[in-house]
Model the fold of this input.
Amino acid sequence: MINAKPHYIAYSVSNGSEEKARWTRIGAAFAHKDAAGFDIVLDALPVTGRIVLREPKENTENKAI
Done:
């Protein structure tokens, strides 16, 4: 899975002091071979806020997670 391209990037999204959303990359989601689900691999868990999954941009590095 380390060399696999993630289908989604996981971000922790929380509001800062000026009510601007703060996005922090915390992991990725990889599709199962049968396309019936995903493995979500997280490097961190948010204490507040929410987790958002977004499709990776073409220029996003595929960092090992």
